[in-house]
Amino acid sequence: MKLPKLKRKTVTEASLSFTFTRRAMVVGGLQAGIGALLIGRMGWISVAENEKYNVLAESNRVNLTLIPPRRGWILDRTGKPLANNRTDFRVDLIPERVTDPEGTIRSLTHLLALAPEDVERIRTEMEKSPGFRPVQVAEKLTYDQFAAVSVRLPDLPGVAPSQGFSRYYPAGATVGHLLGYVGAASAKDFEERKDPLLITPGFKVGKDGLEKSFDRELTGKPGAKRVEVTARGKIVRELTTRPDTPGNAIKLTIDAGLQEYAGRRLATQSGSVVVLDCRNGDVLAMASMPSFDPNSFSDGISHLEWEMLSKDDHVPLRNKTLQGLYPPGSTVKPMVALALLEAGISSKDRINCPGAIRVGNTLFHCHKKRGHGSLDMRGAIAQSCDIYFYQMAQRIGMDRIASMARRVGMGQKFPLPFASQSYGTVPDPAWKLKKYGQKWQVYDTVNATIGQGYMLINPLQMAVMAARLATGRQLMPNFLLGAHRPDPEPVGVPEEHLVTIRDAMSAVVNGGGTGGAARMGIPGVMIAGKTGTAQVRRITMAERAGGVRGNASLPFKLRDHALFQGFAPFDNPRYAIACIIEHGGHTNRVEDAPMIASDTMSFLFDQAKAMEKLETLEKGWGGPPAERLARQMGAYRLAKAIEKGEAPPAAGNASEAANAAGNAANATTAAPGDDDAPPPPGPNPAAAQ
Question: DSSP assignment of 653-686, as one string?
Answer without folding.
Answer: GHHHHHHHHHHHHT-----S--TTSPPPSS----
